[in-house]
Each structure stands twice: as structure tokens, then as C-alpha cells.
Amino acid sequence: MNRLWALSRTTHGVLDIAAPGFVALLWLGAFPAWERILLSLATAFAAYTAIYALNDLVSVEDDREKVREGLNAGYSVEASALRHPLAQGALSLRGGWLWFAAWYGLALLGAWLLNPSIVMLLLAAAALEVLYCRLLKVTYWRILVSGLVKASGPLSAILVVDSSPAWSGLLLILSWVMLWEVGGQNIPADWNDIAEDRRVGAKTLPLTLGTQSAGLLALTALTLTVMVSLFLPGVSPLALGWPYGLGAALIGLTLLLLPALRLYQNQHDPRAAAYLFDRASYYPLAQLSLITLFVLLKQVGWL
Question: What are phi and psi of 302, to 5 degrees?
């Protein structure tokens, strides 16, 4: 089972579930019914498990090229001895595809029960993930495709709690998630894999534009992430006020801006990119914890 969980990068996938959870609570301003929460969690887990597995399934040939020369040990939450188990021969392609199909089927079923519109987002996420993998040796602009894939979860969460959401709010959430993904996940992950990607002729942003530009872009994207996060209370029915804004800003400073600045200033530190990736991976969980606190305060009449 460990090989299958490694295929789906489950540690990272579980952290990612915090993003839809945060967005749902922010948008609704209250806890949904417990049955809906449990179904949503099960569906989100199935979806993230499937999509992360799909990444390795589609990229297996490129990953095999990397494995031949040895993998970077890595330091991020995604690093383990079982990285790319398909490429390392620790898992069969047939087993991998069956694993993906089972979880993707469960995700589609859960999405249909929650809101049939979510099925379209889940289908789009899988198609975009395949496109993202296929563009590895084509263009670094695939980073935007990655942002769209990551945003599909939070956008689906909105449809769980609101069947007719305002487009302005959807676009605000989309921009926030994409900026975080670009600056805090995609750029540092590709930076951490520069040596491997160079061997296979990948066209990632750090390889194509150089680490100086990549560091500046990551810092800029994450600065914008924090700025946009201060406007997110506008989509919530809660009167969150300045205490929430201060909390959101401190979370952004600690988990995004300071690690991004460290990477920009220490571009030759092999751990700096992974450090940013790790801290940014906990950003949605921290935001979920913050909004949960305010929803609880509302429930007891203190807000």
C-alpha cells in the first residue's frame, strides 16, 4: 500500500484538501451539515488521490529518464524513497491505472451527489493535468495549467455550498489559488528538480528563465497572493474585520513571504526551494484554521 500512497503523494494531497475546506467555510460563513462535510471530505480525498496518481501515470516515461541517473534526494513534503514508484519499477502500470480509476470513480460519484456541476470541474481537472504533463518539454507556460488544476478543488468547494455563486467571487478565489500555486508550489518544486529536469530537456521556468528570474517571480506571485487574501473576506457573509485581516497577513508573511525572500536571496542554497515549498504547502491549512476560529466565534455569539 505504501507504494500506492506514494504514487498519489498522499501527504501532500491531504494538505491540499485544506484549500477547498477553507474556501467553503469562508464562502458559507458557517459549517455545512455534517453529512455534507463527510461526503465532501471523502470526495476531495478521492479526487486529489486520483489526480496526483494521474500525474505520475502520464509522466512515467519522463520520470524513467530521471530515475536512470538518480533522483534528487529532496527535502520537501513530496520527497521520499518511493518518489515516482512507477518509474522506479516498484509498481506496475496496470496497478497504477487501476488505483487511479478506482479513486477517480469514487470522486466522480461524490461530485455527482454533491452537485452535478462539480463533475465537469473534475473532468476538466484530469484533462488539464494530462496537458500539464505533456507540456514538460514544450513550455514553462504550463505553470498556468497547474494553477487551473489546483484551483478546481476550491472552486468545487464553492459549488458544494452555493449552487449559483457570483462570478466575481469565483474569479477572486481563482486568482488567489493560482498565485499561491505558481509562487509557492510550482516554481519551488521545479527549482528543487532542476538537475533532473535538465537531463530530460524539460522547459520549466527556473531552467528556461534562470533562477534569478524564477526567484523574483515566486516572490512577486506570493506577494500578490497575500494582497489578494486581504480581499477574500468580501466573499463571506461574516463580518470578519481587521482581526481576520491581521491573521491572514501574518500567515502570509510567515509561510509565504519570508520563505520566498529567503529563496530569492539565497539562490544557491539547495534547501531554500524545498523550504519555500514546504511552508507554502501549509498555507491553506493555516487559512482553514483561521476561518474555522472565526466561524466558531460566530456560533457562540462573539462575532
Answer: -95, 5
